[in-house]
Amino acid sequence: MSPRSPHLYYILPGCWELKMNNKYMRYYKNFKPPPFAPTYRPTEEEFDDPIEYVKKIKPEAEKYGVVKIKPPKSFQPPFAIRSENFTFTPRVQRLNEIDGLIRLRLLFEMEITAFWELQGFDLKPPTIDNKYIDLYKLSRSVVEKGGGEYLTQQKKWYQVGKQLGLTSHQCPRLHDIYYKWVVPFEKCLKEIEEERELNGGSETECIQNVDGRRRIVEPKSRMMAGYRNPPKGKKTKDDSVDDVVCKHCKKGDDEDRLLLCEECNAAQHTYCCNPPLTDVPETEWRCYQCIKARVKSIGENFGFHDAQQEYNLVTFAEFANSWKRDYFQKKILETTPEEVEREFWRKVADLNCDTSVKYGADLLASKVGSGFPILSGSQKAGQKRRKSDANWKKYAEHPWNLNNMPILKGSVLSHIDSGISGMMVPWVYIGMCFTTFCWHTEDHWTYSINYMHWGERKIWYGVSGAEGEKFDEVVNNLVPDLFQKHPDLLHHLTTMINPMILIENGIHVYTVHQEPGEFVITFPRAYHAGYNEGLNCAEAVNFAPPDWLRLGRLCIADYAKVHRKCVFSHDELVVRMVEKVGNMDFFMKCALYDELEKIVSKESKWLARFPKSKHRYERTKFERIYDDQRECIFCKTTLYLSALECKHARLSCLRHSDHLCEKCVGEDYYVKYRYTIDELTDMRKDVASTVEHYVKWKEKATAFLHCSDTLKPSLEDICELVNLSTVQRLPSCDLMEKLNCIIKDCKSVFDMVENLLSPLNRNKTYDFDCVMKLKEKIDKLPCPLPNNLSGFHQFFGRLVEWKNRAKNMDIVSCGEGIDYESIISELKRLIAEADFFHIVLPEVERLKQKLVVHSWLRDAYKLLRWRYSCNRKKLDGGYFPKAALEEPQKWRLKEVEKLIDDGTRLMETNGEIQDVVDEVHSCMKLGWNKEFSAEKILLNERNEGVGVERANEIWGDFEVCDWLSMEKLDELRNEIVKARNIQKLYIEGKGRSDITFSDLETYDGLCSQSFFMNHSRTHLEIIEARSALQDFMKDIESLFSDTSTNYTLYEASSFNSYFEIYHIDGSLCPSIFALRELNMKRNTQETCGCAESHPNEEVSLICCLCRGKTHGSP
Fold this sequence. Notes:
Catalytic activity: N(6),N(6),N(6)-trimethyl-L-lysyl(4)-[histone H3] + 3 2-oxoglutarate + 3 O2 = L-lysyl(4)-[histone H3] + 3 formaldehyde + 3 succinate + 3 CO2
Shape: elongated
EC number: 1.14.11.67
CATH architecture of the domain at 31-90 and 307-374 and 395-435 and 446-459 and 510-523 and 531-543: Sandwich
Cofactor: Fe(2+)
Oligomer: single chain
Strand content: 5-15%
Domain JmjN: 37-78
Keywords: Chromatin regulator, Dioxygenase, Iron, Metal-binding, Nucleus, Oxidoreductase, Repeat, Zinc, Zinc-finger
Number of helices: 37
């Protein structure tokens, strides 16, 4: 099967939209143009010097990558091409092959189809229950899900089936389809890749250098790079089959089943094939090695190809206009540009599209003729001859004539002595509707200029050179498989990516609509692409102002990364410029000096690694060697100043000596050099003498950039140095860009510091990463902070100290015995201090959460400590725990329930507190149980009047809930306390000598109001004592009444005990008190009823009522 066969085996009509990632499909169906790049309109005076005008607009225009220039109306160059003599062979473009995302599928389909059909298998779309299986999508999906083995082991083929729209019971059959059709093919691709990596650069044959000859530069296709497949001659088959044997089983029998490879004549039985063939295939058969070669060629030879027909301008115009009319089914002028753009992007993404267009691209003006007038001696067959016309001569010598642009005095390319196609010699482009130029940068990142002579619009898309590296990364991420096969993919000029997809991935894309008579400028490293709306003729060439030299050097390093060959040697160009330094303007001399500085530094560094004591040095005139014979064997850079050569005549640059030769050792290498370091240094000095003030300025700037930390220049010093370069009209250079970046960075950093420290900006939010990056920027700045911002260092120190303290809080453990009060105090301090920094600190939320957790734990453990201490602590023989004294306020049920609810919520993010929550919950459960028990006790009449001893026994079962305050529990507790207090008061009263009848009445009243003391033994004792005392007092009162009886004091005092009559209430009659006073003054002899004299007056009895004394013995 031909690698360009249009047959794609499983693209089903009407379902092409499903083949592209739905994420991007909308950009093709509903394309929206990017924003416009600016259009510049130079005055007649500005238009006199193209190099100066481009230099003037560059600061603004460069960020767009591509801009349009409308020349003054007076610029009307004649079209110099003779249409009928201008002949060319266009390139054929298939629209659905140019988009990188679509090409991944096309390559897969072409390669897998060739892989199976060349083995003799008829690859048909596999189905499951009449549903076609997309092998490309199947292959991608399996890779994304981890590979076939992983899906089989984990039994996850249903995930792949879901992406392919299959039901769960259909998914297992995907395994068989994948391993039958895809796995063998992917194994082949893997072998191809391994062989490519194994060979590396060693496939290059060892050749001898040839001196004295200059390589003839062949035209290189840039806009329409493609690949031509030279027909491979098949090996002649030997008619004799006697010696033909199967390379698998090594037998030559069963000749009817013996297949011969159409490429190499290798033989194999049908049943020895893997997988085996049931019959001899009707088509041509290839062995496995030849199949691998064919599959490999499909991936490598993907591009545009030449048409079979040659055209001139007249015949091509007829073809192009007719094609557009037939396609849109309307007149050319009736087709709007919007229709063309929408249809272009729709067709680009249409896998079923068979639309092909022809592009007359990269037509070398030196062969076919330029559209601009050329003076005699340079005219070609396709160009008109009008030597005597003054207007012709005017435009032939005009600086905006693209034949003159590369060799203008201000262009570096004027120092190249060979006509490089497209760079030194313009290319002509004859376009038609939908013809495309894909994303690319100009060779060596030079400027380019394109002029449209006539025709319909050309649509351009551009990306700034500043985003060139990011562009590479984005495209690499979008089509990694293509980059894996071709690291220099974007240098092939065959890959288109929808601008809207690039914009979505962060690339700034702009557009330009070029009309006839307008110029389009592209800037260094600016990626650009586009298409033509219809028949037109344009011309393009490169040019390089002095500022390009630095970018050209960077481009060589970038080319080396992807092993792309150079169009010319950058170092050789620089050295050639030294020879003509006297004819240069000041700006070009400065740029040349900068390049010589880089060259001397680079060569000194690398030559030092190959000392003369270990290697033989040999001066070589590299300019006399063909360019393709003086390339580094690894990075393909064109060598000029120095090189290494092994004994097998291989060459490499000094950087890639380890890739030079596997057979030679380092000591075998020859060091080839064009100039010594001293000679290069002398060149630099010669150029430096012509730009002395520029050199002095650079020396001062270099000193600024390499100052020690203690001697850093201030921002004002750097600004002054930059202003000096402006006053002296010095050109831009690396150092100046660094200084401008430093000024910009310093101002930006200082503004950030000021905003951070200013109290007026406390409403602004920063985060610690921002502050940390700001600190790193400050440390890297070559300028110190101004005095008014020096407080940042103290601010940062406090912030770091706060962060460390906050970090310590993260490792604080939880549990019993922790000093939660100290932790909570520290957490509160940290949270309060965070407000000082007025930045976003993620730790604050964690600290707040930790504060909530630790506050909860503190309360929970307080409860638990009290609860567990209730069983162990007693006070003065009672059941009051010590914790009760420390906790004056008991826990209420709502508080405990809230504690549990809060703990349950905290458990979601703090699992370690679950045990504590459970313990608190058990406390609450116990409390409810005791509440019910207390209620039962209080309702039980048998418990009334049981006395304090029994009450204490009852409370012994409730002391575990002494921490809890509930209605019945509190009532029981109060009754217990009341009983204890009554008992205590009564006992204390009995121990005193001054108890009164009023006290007994009080005790009686208290007992009556006490659940446990009412009618208890104590209560009855109090009642009895009170009753006896009351009777006694009545008897005494009767003694002193007006109708006194003959009772004596002895008869009146017939009480059960002395205690009962010891104290008489003051409610008796007043006469008793008068008697008391009188008797207290009398002696025993006067008051005793015996009226006898006793010698011992001290032995007497005193009446408790009247205080009368009586002899103790008769």
